Amino acid sequence: MELVVNEAHQRVRDRVKRFTGFELLPRPAVAAQFLAGHTAGDPVAERFVAETYHGEMGAERARELLDEALAVGIDGIDDAPESMRALFTEFETVPDWVDPVLIEQGAAVWRRWGYSLGAVGNAGTMDTYTEGSLAIPLSLSGGYAGASALHRYLETSRWWLEVCQPGAVLTPGSRAREVSLKVRVMHVSVRARVAEHPEWDSAAHGLPISQSEMMLTLLGGSVGPALGLYALGFVTSPAEIRAVLHFNRYLGHLVGCRVDEMYPESVLDGVRLLYYFDATRKHDSGPLGPELVEGFVPSFEPPAGMRGLTRLRAKYHLHLQAGYTRLFMLPWNRRHYRLPSGLPGLAVLILRAPLIVATEVARRLSPGVDRWVQASSMRRWRRWHAWHLGQREERFDAGRRLRR
């Protein structure tokens, strides 16, 4: 496969370089790593999944074994296969570059962003469904297709909610670490199944859920929302953006992303990689892009039997999500999809921006206000998540079959 910068993006790069001196594209070495990352997976986790979930053990027993190891520790499992021990050794090893102070500062940024992090991240993700390499795995697995779109979003939201809890990602045995390992195993299982599917073209797309694509999701949780949320009143300082970039780097380590090679060393490096992705789009997702994009916001539509304030609440979140997509999807991509106008939700976002700015100023003046902002934001986010989830269960199911 190859990545080619299109002419329009090259012209923009040339003009920016000429008038400001800033280079919008990554260094050739980083671009080469990004290309190579499209054919790279997660060998340690892949060996475990092949031996257990996709092997003679079977998905049900493998799931039980993983749950047991997460509960008592890998040393407490006498019959754990060697591939499982290797996975846990890698997962539980804290890299030398980890700075616990920066990890906590980055998690605090996520807590302040709260619900907006998920909404902006999802709008940005929907914008990437022009690409077959991203749309095909999601469509085949059914993750964000049709009626399951909201539940899959709630699963992802659960991971966000857990990992940004104070101290959670560095605490052995925490729910945050448990969910992270299950997400890693689930991605590997989907990768293996999609790679064998006749709809997948490895010559054109490389490897499903590749290292490069996982790295982009980390930028979608750090540099992307940090810059985008300025439009809604969230004033994230350069130091805070660097902290959340470090936090996402460690999250990448937990879910099997190689964060020692092409991961951005600075905010500007992150901007360059995001621009490079946009500049090298292939727009080859065909009908799968609309299937995914047009199915998400309508999944927030209240059921026919819902009445009263509960129905109004559901409608509010429907319009709010539509507002985020209107604001954060690139307009030249968004126009190719049939989406709700998003204008009511956009109006809400704009009207509340001055209040968010005032809160941002106050939190910088008072640590107590800052703690209150974090707690309040998380409380609202958890309440929304619990209300939407209802009686359903998040399983992060690595044994789930493709839907076609």
Automatic annotation (TrEMBL):
Pfam families reported for this sequence: MPAB_Lcp_cat
Q: Which domain of life is it from?
A: Bacteria
ER-bound oxygenase mpaB/mpaB'/Rubber oxygenase catalytic domain spans which residues? Answer: 109-341
Q: Which residues form a coiled coil?
A: none
Signal sequence: where? none
Q: Which PANTHER family match?
A: ER-BOUND OXYGENASE MPAB_MPAB'_RUBBER OXYGENASE CATALYTIC DOMAIN-CONTAINING PROTEIN, SECRETED PROTEIN-RELATED
Q: What is this protein called?
A: ER-bound oxygenase mpaB/mpaB'/Rubber oxygenase catalytic domain-containing protein
The species this protein belongs to is Gordonia alkaliphila
